[in-house]
Design brief:
L-fuculose-1-phosphate Aldolase, binds 1,3-dihydroxyacetonephosphate, binds zinc ion, about 40% helix, 12 helices, about 280 residues, alpha+beta, nine-stranded mixed β-sheet
Length: about 280
């Protein structure tokens, strides 16, 4: 079976297991999509069936016409992806109008792509454009500490970015562009898809209040690493606040952040450095 021998598919499944082992995917929580390269889709083509019907998404992206995406299935558990990929994940093709998908492999026995596919799809469109085609992954997870922070901090990009940058020295280096924040919204709907993709023009990570996190990236390691680093920063913040009874004795200062930026040759968003 060509699909399961493909290197990208193997990395995709390993990433699902890694996310499960981190505790970010209770039950069917979270979803992962990967925009395949032409070569990968060609390699897998012998396993594809083009008999499936097209399903309109309610959203359109002209720059994703004819693309192939690996996607987790709605209601499927990350815990089971690697063991039984054909039933829990699948590959969909996008039509020539850029507004519908059809399953060409996997999602056997009536499965369909994640309910967040419209969000993933619009985010792919925006990130593909913003990165000159480099971005290939959109990853949504439910990391507990980051979600906990959405009960404690004002729901702004500045508050989240700054708090996370100050929670671990590596944070500003890993996500110098910061994180966007969308307020609580009903999941799986066009409204949250549009709100997230608007922020993804500027940010490669977007927090969903009281729900989870969306990240994007060019490859599996970078994308998983971004999710991991943001959640680690949130965990340190929660640990310090809990242990300190809500008070911090000291922190990484704005001047410290500027010093990191200078030494590492990175540009931090200036508006997030001001007190
Ligand atoms: P799916 O099972 O449809 O992927 O939904 C899980 C989830 O996290 C919704 O936000
Ligand atoms: Zn979710």
């Amino acid at each position: 079976m060509a699909v399961l021998e493909n290197a990208a598919v193997k990395k995709y499944l390993r990433m699902c297991t890694d996310g499960w082992l981190q505790g970010w995917h209770e039950r069917n929580g979270g979803n992962l999509t990967y925009r395949m390269t032409r070569e990968e889709a060609e390699f897998c083509r012998e396993d594809f069936s083009f008999a499936g019907s097209w399903h309109r998404m309610g959203v359109t992206a002209g720059n994703l016409r004819g693309e192939y995406f690996l996607t987790t299935g709605t209601g499927k558990f990350f815990r089971n992806m690697e063991e039984d990929p054909q039933h829990n994940a699948g590959i969909v093709e996008i039509n020539e109008e850029g507004n519908a998908w059809r399953i060409v492999w996997g999602l056997e026995n009536g499965g369909t792509p994640t309910s967040e596919f419209p969000s993933h799809f619009l985010n792919h469109s925006v990130r593909k454009e913003a990165t000159n085609g480099e971005c290939r992954l959109i990853y949504h997870a439910h990391p507990a500490n980051l979600i906990a922070l959405t009960y404690l901090l004002p729901l702004t990009a500045k508050d989240f970015t700054r708090t996370l940058w100050q929670s671990a020295t590596e944070c500003p280096v890993v996500f110098p562009g910061g994180v966007g924040v969308v307020p609580w919204m009903v999941p799986g709907k066009e409204e949250v898809a549009v709100a997230t993709s608007r922020l993804m023009r500027e940010y490669d990570a977007v927090v969903w209040a009281h729900h989870g996190l969306f990240v994007s990236g060019p490859d599996f390691d970078t994308t998983f690493g971004l999710m991991h680093t943001i959640e680690k920063g949130a965990q340190i913040c929660i640990l310090a606040l809990s242990a300190g009874g809500g008070k911090l004795r000291q922190t990484i200062t704005g001047a410290n952040l500027r010093a990191i930026a200078k030494d590492f040759g990175i540009t931090l968003r200036e508006e997030f450095l001001e007190d």
